[in-house]
Amino acid sequence: MRHILVTGATDGIGKVTARELGAEGTSVWIVGRNAEKTAAVVRELTALKPGATYHGLVADLARPPEVSRLGRELLDKLPHLDVLVNNAGAFFSTFEQTPEGFERTFALNHLNYFILTHHLLPALKKAPKGRVVSVASDAHRMAKLDFDNLQGEHGYKGWTAYGRSKLCNILFTRELARRLAGGTVTANSLHPGFVASKFGHNNVGAMNHLLKFSQKIFAIDENAGAKTSIYLASSAEAGKFSGQYFSRCKPSTPTLAAQDDSAALRLWTISEQIAAPYLP
Questions:
Q1: Are 62 and 98 in contact (CB under 8 A)?
Q2: Distance (Å, rounded) from C-alpha 179 to C-alpha 241?
Q3: CA-CA to 256 of 20 to 30 Å: which in 26, 126, 190, 225?
Q4: Nearest C-alpha neighbor of 5 from the set 118, 59, 86
């Protein structure tokens, strides 16, 4: 049986990805923040894909202790993991910190991927050909990392923080693929497109209204937005790639900042240091 994990799978492209990856002989594990909503989505997807087995897991992935708990729980449940889809993420217009002291954008959009992947690598390596698929964004094109202000403590701006977190996703994937080279696990990141979803609706005021208006006018639907995630998770062709950035189911060239291997290594080292209490 194939085992697939999709985070942020109770809404948007994560839910579509979990739905479309469900097939006969496949066990799909979906992660959501709300227990009732997660259970409802499991029931919905099970009805739509009766040949697949759906499981719901609950965790607040902006909280590193929760990510760590989730990783340990999954290792106890899974004989192996064929695909990890790091999809959960959000945009926060104002500076917020988690109870652990991490800026929320950085914690959810980057540390979540970093910590969960570390925990699940043993299960991915047990699969015939494990895959790590991380949802990034072309929002990285407006970003450069400032290692002296990595979490936006000095002069926080919501879109700057979001763009940096998506740059982190690509650099993380790049360094992860380098470390996995020669093995059976691949790692790729992707741009889903500007998707009409509930992205950004957690914010209040003018930013919320602006995002909703922009999505209504310019965005693609969730089915289109999930296509590249599904492609990287399931197609035989995608299994030949590692360390790449994809858009519209094809390799795409990210910015020079996203191709900086020294920055990728530095980000990895810093992430290891600050996330040490939550790593396996």
A1: yes
A2: 14
A3: 225
A4: 86
In this structure, are strands 83-86 and 131-135 parallel, antiparallel, or unpaired? parallel
From 54, 113, 156, 162, the catalytic residue: 162
- pLDDT of amino acid 201: 41
CATH of 2-278, one of 3.40.50.2000, 3.40.228.10, 3.60.15.10, 3.40.50.720: 3.40.50.720
Is 54 assigned a catalytic role?
no
Q: Is the pTM of this model over 0.90?
A: yes
Amino acid residing at 174: R
pLDDT of residue 232: 98
pLDDT at 168: 98
| The pLDDT of residue 220 | 73
For helices 112-126 and 158-180, give the axis angle rounded to 10 degrees: 20
Asked if 3 contacts 81 with a C-beta cutoff of 8 angstroms, the reply is yes
Signed CA dihedral, 36, 38, 42, 45: sign only: positive
Using 50 as the pLDDT threshold, list the residues of the chain that sit under it.
Answer: 197-198, 200-201, 203-218
Query: Mutual orientation of helices 12-21 and 227-234 as an angle, nearest 10°?
Result: 40
Q: Which residues contact 172 (CB under 8 A, 6 or more apart)?
A: 110, 113, 114, 134, 189, 264, 267, 268, 271
- CA 142 → CA 139, 229, 266, distances in Å? 6, 22, 20
Write out the H or E segment, with its range, that includes residue 84.
Answer: strand 83-86
Residue 203 CB neighbour total at 10 angstroms: 17
Q: Tell me, what's the pLDDT at 214?
A: 44
Q: 12-21 and 35-48 helices cross at what angle (nearest 10)?
A: 40
Task: Label residues 1-26 b or e (16+ Cβ within 10 Å = b).
Answer: ebbbbbbbbbbbbbbbbbbbbbeeeb
